[in-house]
Amino acid sequence: TALDDVVAIVGISGCFPMARDPDAFWDNLIQGKHCIREVPGQRWDWQAIYGDPTTDPNRSNVKWGGFIDGVDEFDPLFFGISPREATLMDPQQRLLMTHVWKAIEEAGYSPSSLSGSRTGVFVGTASVGYASLLANSGLPIEGYTSTATVPSIGPNRVSFLLNLHGPSEPIETACSSSLVAIHRAMVAMQVGDCDQAIVGGVNTIVTPDLHISFNKAGMLALDGRCKTFSSDANGYVRGEGVGVLFLKKLKAAEDAGDHIHGLLIGSAENHGGRANSLTSPNSRSQADVLVRAHRKAGIDPRTVTYLETHGTGTSLGDPVEINGIKTAFKTLYEDLPDSPIGGHRCALASVKTNIGHLELAAGVAGVVKVLLQFRHRQIAPSLHCDELNPLIELGDTPFHVATRSEPWTAIHDAQGRELPRRAGVSSFGFGGVNAHVVLEEYVPRARTARGPANLPSLVPISARNAAVLRDYVTDVVAFIARSPEVSLSDLAYTLQVGRDAMDERLAVVAHDLDDLARKLQGFLDGRTDLDDVYVNQVARNRDALGEFAGDEDLQSTMETWHSKAKYGKLLGMWVKGVSFDWSALHRQQPADQAPRRISAPTYPFARERLWVKPAAGSTTSAAMQVPPPTSSLQEPVVAAAAAVVAVDPVLVALRALRNGSMDIEHAISAVAKEPEPAGG
């Protein structure tokens, strides 16, 4: 692959069955956890429709699935959406907005920093049932009912929210949707339609309709186990989840100093044309899509040591896929006629054995799994395959099914140099659309050794309200406890430049990680005697600050305070609502001291329960209700705020500077009064 075509994955977010985030997802994978359960009553009453689908209309004898927690939860006011409108929104739109925000922050960028950029949005999504709940709810049609469930509005909302000017597209190719979305984004970046992209897929299971249909078609496993490649394979298990990736061109990512999870070096998409039936897999076309993707990657096929297969766990589909893989690699080996295959070994596995088939989000789930395996240099086990399907023959091939966790050992070239780990991910739609991507482990550029940090770090944290701020601080404390090796300056820098400043603010002067953790815990404990901890609310000061919130002279003054180690004065103004260009603090730093963006805790959204009430007599559980508006859904309002801020000497000085009754030197002197500590 030409260097200009290599795409870096710089941000990840997602939630999966029994895993609210990628870290929990990895814990489940490496432990070989089976994340399938009975259909929760929150979705529908499976007992009310239990029966033989071949003899009883609209019945199903499959009661299993991979379900995410919080499918009914959202933080509507964060996104400027009323709870009433949010209740009508397809949960896939809500999940998408939440995890796009998190993926951007996980990359170390503030979402507002993307405003006006040529960022594309490509998402595997479709209407999967919420519209029917709305239709049967008896709720009146509103002006925003039309945008509530149209699939294209999901990615379009993201582009609107963040003011992104690249393509904004839903992708619906059934089970291959999210992997096709990744392929489309790569092509769009290569041809210049966008400079960077947000990609992924989202899938929810909110009604029993497709469950009944797939069960009747014989696709689903009655025992709730996806037994990929097994002699006992008897169908797949439906699952839900969301996965979002933030993509940049490799050079742009390296120039910006981004942390890179892995590289996309090749991709391809095709359709099998006419096969035995519309939904029959086509081994030839599956082989072709692998060959095209790996040829685009331009790598020796012997360096690919892991394949995340489509692997649905059907007795005929699995052998078709294996035959396609064998055919593809035989063809790729022929590209190297003078090179012996040697000891090439390649593990095969399927994440569907853990979490079920995520359908619209299946491909991105496989990609996230590979990225996590890159990070931990381990291959997670593929479950439920005690005995190989007799129609699968892996003898005299480089392939084996990874039924146990194993170290992902790097291979070496002829000169003994370690090569990056490489993997392929396949996703095949049941309508015939196939996709494959090739990933490569990222080997960072050599960097100058970091010198000792001589200065304390300024750590800002903010949220929309006080309750969420406490959640955020709790997450940062937990992050420090599990990541003692992290650089304090990197963490501070990421929270400075990689987060949008909000109304409830906390700022800390910290000398090391332990100092930061101690002070943050003190804030959580309600202590008001903490040194170098500053807390305030922008709304209390907004009127008095007026134009000074972004005044250039004040910005310069705050930089001067930093240079003179008057950190409390700077942070005291920031927590009151004065905007500050944090990057200005780092422009003059020597290369060995410059901080870097890291993966740090992202915004912990409020979780308000929003769902439509089921129609009378529906098999959907009455547990889903439209909640009445509550005070927790309202932004905090401070009574008599103007009277409170009028007595603040700092703000009095700013007003005097504004009306000309005080010059800049005297104003700075007044502003230099130490602000109140935590609790003030």
Give the topology, please.
Layout: E1 7-15, H1 22-30, E2 37-38, E3 64-65, E4 73-74, H2 83-88, H3 91-106, E5 119-124, H4 130-135, H5 145-148, H6 153-162, E6 168-171, H7 177-191, E7 196-203, H8 209-216, E8 241-249, H9 250-255, E9 262-271, H10 283-297, E10 304-308, H11 317-333, E11 346-349, H12 352-355, H13 362-376, E12 378-379, E13 399-401, E14 406-407, E15 422-428, E16 433-440, E17 457-463, H14 466-482, H15 488-497, E18 504-510, H16 513-524, E19 533-537, H17 538-545, H18 552-563, H19 567-576, E20 608-609, H20 641-646, H21 649-659, H22 664-671
Parallel strand pairs: 5-6, 5-7, 10-11, 10-15, 11-13
Antiparallel strand pairs: 1-8, 1-9, 2-3, 4-20, 7-8, 9-16, 12-14, 15-16, 17-18, 18-19
Task: Characterize the structure shown.
- There is one protein chain.
- The protein has 680 residues and is of the alpha/beta class.
- It has 22 helices and 20 strands.
- The strands form five sheets. Strands 6-5-7-8-1-9-16-15-10-11-13 form an eleven-stranded mixed beta sheet, sandwiched between helices. It has a three-stranded antiparallel beta sheet with strand order 17-18-19, with helices on both faces.
- Helix 3 crosses helix 6 (153-162) and helix 10 (283-297) crosses helix 11 (317-333).
- The chain starts with 6 loop residues before the first strand and ends in a 9-residue tail after the last helix.
- 50% of the residues are buried.
- The model is unreliable at 621-648 and 671-680 (pLDDT under 50).
